[in-house]
Amino acid sequence: MSEAGGILLPTVSEICAKLDEFAPPRLAETWDNTGLLLGRSEAPVRGLLTCLTLTEEVAWEAAGLPVQLVITHHPILFRPVKRLTGATADGRTILLLAERGIAVYCPHTAFDSAANGINQQLAESLGLHSIVPLRPLVGEPSIGGGRCGVFPAAISRGDFLQRVQDVTGAGWLEWCGSGPE
Question: Which of 28, 78, 90, 129 is the most exposed place for a label (fewest CB within 10 A)?
């Protein structure tokens, strides 16, 4: 905890540690870029913002709020960076956040694979039972990449797609396949 104006505030590292408990970094894919990706771990946090993907627009939103930490599902700095300038959207995004002292944390595939991560939550929201990871970790049958399960009763393709749309709030879906509905 850090004291700011007589108020005890959690630090970036303390919040990241809690997130790491929920979605341990060891669950992340080897190719992924997860964890604290930008910022000072000792900085106090009064407010945070969450998003799926940290775009330049989201960075400007964060910059206009009393936010010291952005938690984004998809990582920034996913590929090696050779230049960090205002000439690109990624550069502008990272520079803006750094200039404003806003840290960035990303759990990405660790959250995907966690026992109660996004894939498990989605499978449960769809009404699946007997849910198991598609790629379980050795010795941990409830943890791993993806999820599969069964519906309690047969469901038509149309009903399945409608359920996916309802659960995800998607405005539209695309699918491919053949055969009877």
Answer: 129
Summarised one tens digit per residue, pLDDT across range 32-86 is 999 999 999 999 999 999 999 999 999 999 999 999 999 999 999 888 888 899 9
Question: What pLDDT score was predicted for residue 77?
Answer: 82
49 membership: H or E segment, kind and range: strand 48-53
Which H/E stretch holds residue 110?
helix 108-113
Amino acid residing at 120: Q
Which residues are 4's β-sheet partners?
A: 7
- Cα–Cα distance list, 161 to 45, 121, 128 (Å): 40, 17, 14
The conformation of residue 26, written as its DSSP 8-state character, comes to: G
**Residue 65, both tokens:** 């709020």
